[in-house]
Amino acid sequence: MIKKYFWRIAAAAGLLAAAAAMLTAYFAERGLARLAPGGLGVAFSTRIYSAPHELRSGAPADLPGLLERLARLDYREAQAPAAPGEYGRTGASVEINLRGFRTPLAAQPPLAAVLTDQGGAWEIRDSSGGAPGAVLLEPELAEELSGPLRVRRDPATLDELPVELRDAVIAVEDKRFYSHFGLDLRATARSLLYTLTRRGLWGGSTITQQLAKNLFLTPRRTLKRKAAEAALAVYLELRFTKDEILTLYLNHIYLGQDGPSGVAGMKAAARFYFGRDPAALTLSQCAALAGLIRSPYLYNPRRDPAAAERRRDHVLSRMRAEGMITPGELAEAAAAPLAPVTLSVRPDDRGAAYYTAEVVRQLLQRYDEEELFRGGLSIYTAMDPKLQAAASRAAAAGRYEAAVLALDPAGGGVLAIAGGRDFAKSQFNRATQARRQPGSAFKPFVYGAALEAGFTPATLLQDATRTYQNPGGETWEPRNYNNVYAGTVTLRVALARSLNLATLDLAGRVGPAKITAYARRLGIDSPLENSLAVALGASEVSLIELTAAYAPFANGGMRITPVIVTAVTDQRGRVLEYADRSRVPVITPAQAYLMTSLLESAVTEGTGSALGRYYGWIGAAAGKTGTTNKGRDAWFVGYTPRLLAGVWTGDDSNKAVGAVGAGDAAPLWTAFMRSALGGAQPDKFEPPPEGLVTVEVDPMSGLLAVAGCPARREEVFAAGTEPREKCRLHPRGIGGWFKRFFGIGKTDKNDRKE
Each residue of 90-128: pLDDT tens digit? Predict the structure, then answer.
């Protein structure tokens, strides 16, 4: 009886195994039949989207900009728009039949909206005459990563691929390729251990398993997929010879990204990275291409030559360990430069390459390349395409290398990133990856810390030469930008004119520890010197962190986190992540207002006054220039009530080029801002919050102005810190008249070029 049941169970198991084998074969043959058109197996396009665009009643009416957006979104002009995706124009009005959309963070139902230019501002009505207040245009597609039909591939026979290239791949990916039956049991055990316990290593797939995964399976990492991969690998070993499997693998492996298209196969990769056919590759280049398989992004020789060379050297060492090359060949190949050819980037009128590359760089910290490039993800960003195009144009217009970054100061969304003048020549993102000395662009944190410590805009500072001693005992004699010293000045004048010696006087009274703590609280995360040198911007920072750290001045005192990726969904629309857009109060609204007032003075009467005098800026703005020693770096970080932007320009090699904040960074900022605003003047800054008072002071003494004072200014103070004493420098009567007549007490004007 037991034997009878045993044979029944065995027969059932055999039938199930046979059925599974038949299904595996059927599934595999269907997939193999699709190889001719060329694809990356089962792959789905990953799409990167901009933010939705809000149209608000009362916002500046920018008809040309609106029509450009509608064209990019494939809206069609019609005389009588009736269907979603159509619009029509009548005089000063535009009727838009919104398609409607839903993302993880926003939704817009289908709606017929009528936008009318009322004196330079939009008025929005729906088709029934209602006033929705605001409507949304759907996100624009910024980039599409490789899907089934977006692949650069040049099929090659095995004989077309040099032996060194084949050996390099086998050495680093599957050294027992010619001896196993499709599975490496030890590696498979490690992979299963990882899946079950999350303590082991995932790696260990053979070349045949990788081929099965690339041809037939989705990128999702599950135990079910791993089992299917193993079954398909065994089938491929039965179906093809080892050389045929290797040929298929070398023609289908994913090796990088050329804009929206994936680069697949060694022949296409050889041409893409090195501009030559496989037969002309050097041993060094063969090893570099083999090294790309593990991570085409991390080991891209254009993006990170040092990482690519380290990976190449690892491949060469594996080849030497397997006896494929001699010690001399290894040494010669390791010493050879990789010399990748310049990337040829397709025309992009939005200039979004730096932005989308930063999206990929950030997400690769949380997703593997297979899932990111082939998993059908939808990636939603904070990018504004109009501002992105403006940032790219501004960065390209400078005399030197440049970076431009724009933020929403209220919510932290990164609206635009131009990480350099030309993405085709350099993919290094100077807005997010570079760290340089900010010079005087760091000074607002010194003055902000001083306000918090009880100093006022009318506090008197000494702008005079003196010798300082470093903690190590060395002496230090800092100077003003043009070697002109103003003597006694108010705190407002010192920041507006960017007076180094007055700033050091203030920093010495506040203390470096309070200054660095203040800067950290507002968002500076890079290491900062705990000495007076920090006050003059001696510590290196990135453009994105410096710009974001100005946000509390612009938004009433809230620290923001710069947000590039706002949400990610999978192929089925399930949300994989949301960005953290929380805001933390770090300074009071009164202190934020005071800092904005001080930085407005820098733009209207100080080092930033070139914006209006030379570059055509009109309207409210607050900001600060920065110039480092011998013009190695020039900065301008500034904001209007709704938009914050930072600019850096200089030389990548840190060479002294004579760049100046007011002469090189400020015009790029102005060009970007004017384009971003569409020619409209920015709104005025908010009125002062509670807790502030305004009194008339003498700018020379910082005390209450009297009749004899030759100059007066309305100054704002935190309540209780305003001066109580009257000015004694300018007495009334005949004595005061003689002093004023002969100019006693006047100070030299400082040069405003910094």
Answer: 888 999 999 989 999 999 999 999 999 988 889 999 888
Q: Determine if the pTM surpasses 0.70.
A: yes
CATH number for domain 345-438+540-685, candidates 3.40.710.10, 3.40.720.10, 1.25.40.80, 3.20.20.150 = 3.40.710.10
Both structure tokens of 710: 């030759």
3-state SS class at 32: helix
Which candidate in 95, 173, 371, 545 is catalytic? 173
Determine the angle formed by the axes of helices 500-510 and 443-452, rounding to 10 degrees. Answer: 40
CB 162 within 8 A of CB 281: yes
Nearest in space to 293 (alpha carbons), one of 206, 423, 410: 206
pLDDT in tens, 60-98: 888 888 999 999 998 999 988 888 899 999 888 999 999
Tell me whether residue 173 is one of the annotated catalytic residues: yes
> What b/e string do you get for 218-233 counting C-beta neighbours within 10 Å, with b at 16 or more?
bbeeeeebbebbbbbb
CATH of domain 51-140: 3.30.2060.10
CATH of region 147-335, choose from 1.25.40.10, 3.40.50.720, 1.10.3810.10, 1.10.630.10: 1.10.3810.10
Q: Which residues, 6+ apart, have CB-to-CB distance to 23 below 8 Å?
A: none
Kindly report, residue by residue over 160-179, the tens digit of the pLDDT: 999 999 999 999 999 989 98
CA dist 272 and 627 (Å) reads 40
User: β-pairing, 468-469 with 475-476?
Assistant: antiparallel
Question: Which one, of 611, 646, 662, lies nearest residue 498 by Cα?
Answer: 662
Positive or negative: CA dihedral 663, 464, 637, 696:
negative
Burial class (CB in 10 A: 0-12, 13-18, 19+), 477: exposed
> Can you tell me which residue has the tokens 């993302």?
103
Tell me where in the chain the CATH 1.10.3810.10 domain(s) lie.
147-335
pLDDT band at 381 (very low <50, low <70, confident <90, very high): very high
> Which among 50, 205, 426, 440 is annotated as catalytic?
440
CA distance 156 to 165: 13
* CA 271/CA 341 separation, integer angstroms: 9
Parts of the chain belonging to CATH 3.30.2060.10 = 51-140
Please check whether residue 667 is in contact with residue 605, taking contact to mean a CB–CB distance below 8 angstroms.
no
Nearest alpha-carbon partner for 232 in 418, 62, 88, 26: 26
Q: In what order do the strands lie in the sheet with 86-90?
A: 76-77, 86-90, 93-98, 111-118, 121-126
Hey, what are 44's tokens? 């789905």
pLDDT tens-digit map of 219-234: 666 666 677 788 888 8
Nearest to 153 by CA among 259, 271, 280, 243: 271
Coil vs helix vs strand at 143: strand
Dihedrals phi, psi of 621, to nearest 5 degrees? -160, 150
DSSP 503-533: HHHHHHHH-HHHHHHHHHHHT--S---SSGG
Within 8 A by CB and 6+ apart from 633, the residues are 436, 437, 438, 439, 626, 627, 648, 649, 650, 659
Take residue 133 and report the two structure tokens written for it: 């207040």
What residue spans in the chain does CATH classification 3.40.710.10 cover? Answer: 345-438+540-685
For residues 441 and 498, what is the distance between their CA atoms, to the nearest angstrom? 9
Q: Provide the token pair at 431.
A: 């807005």
Q: Is position 295 annotated as part of the catalytic site?
A: no
